[in-house]
């Protein structure tokens, strides 16, 4: 019998998976640049109308299957076992994401070390320092990547209860406390804080275009860790009697709350020092923010350590959830120990991770189809594997599973009308909406 989460452990672990690097740079930048609260309203509509619906479908696959993704599909579709078991292989997407995601967490670790000593004090210097880390400093990149890699694999080697649950039970509250401390400090920055709040919350509906709608939907899927079997895998270890709907709402609430807190913190600093709000992604975190912290002297060092540590925690709790699905599958399929399964996955992830480092490293700059390997993995997973996975899982629950069986699963948590609405959205709205994002992303 596999080990199970406690009820709160499940919510924290799933929220830990959802809250990740996506919340730190994708969410704030997209909100800021795409119409402030108009984007937040749109994001909420898409999260509840689409992502929430598909998330419940993913949960039900795990809860009804109660084993790893491949075997869950086999068990739930006895007539077309072989064909449907293939759907479980979307879990490989998680392992692929982990390969480049761990590298970014490695950069964060490097910045925690830097925050103890000296951060670059001008944007030019900071840009050069970050550029140097990824293009010239193979040793630092590889070392930080290796440390993070060992932490993540060590946690997964301890299993669901004493590894993943324990990690999340202390990292998620710590992450929250760190964010609260930084938010309190941001409040003392008066003008900067108000400008940040205005930037994030004043709605500008004219900025909402079809392009933005699709991007927001992509963000909702990425942010809720969908389409790569993380949700069914964690749900297979759900304790009996857990309220699926309430748990999902809590996870979504925590995910949005952390995104907004991150946004307020990051942009307060950016506005207080008239930084560049159009910078997104790594530029925002490793260049703009790093410089701003440097301006604050010792307080800046403390805040920088707190900020990068909170990102480290957010990243690690997401990374473990990318690896667990495939680990669980190998244990069941090959009847091997958890440690041995992890050795196989580790070799794969480590090799891909090193290739990603080499793809930025100037002397090698390993490119595939003219793009760094890192970008290819990122593109392939976010734009192809995750959305196709999400549609496949929704179609499976909507058209292959028996309606009565799913109704029994949810009947304690929603009434008949709500169930019917959910079921309709799942069967007809989700596949069309997700297909639209994908086609758009590919044609763009
Ligand atoms: N949700 C995570 C984030 O926002 C990323 C993730 C994707 C985690 C897929 C697990 C699986 O960073």
The CATH architecture comes to Up-down Bundle
- The proportion of residues forming helix, as a percent range, comes to over 70%
Distance between the termini: 47 Å
Largest sheet: 2 strands, antiparallel
Summarize the structure.
With 444 residues, the chain is mainly alpha-helical.
Which helices and strands appear, and what pairs or packs with what?
Layout: H1 7-18, H2 21-33, H3 37-65, H4 69-76, H5 81-85, H6 91-116, H7 123-135, H8 138-157, H9 159-187, H10 191-201, H11 210-223, H12 230-235, H13 244-272, H14 281-295, H15 297-334, H16 338-360, E1 367-368, E2 371-372, H17 373-400, H18 403-410, H19 416-443
Antiparallel strand pairs: 1-2
Helix pairs in contact: 1-9, 1-13, 1-15, 2-11, 2-13, 2-14, 3-4, 3-11, 3-13, 3-17, 3-19, 6-8, 6-15, 6-16, 6-17, 7-14, 8-9, 8-15, 8-16, 9-13, 9-15, 10-13, 11-19, 14-15, 15-16, 17-19
Defining traits:
444 residues, Amino acid/polyamine transporter I, 80% helix, 2 strands, binds phenylalanine, mainly alpha, two-stranded antiparallel sheet, globular, 19 helices
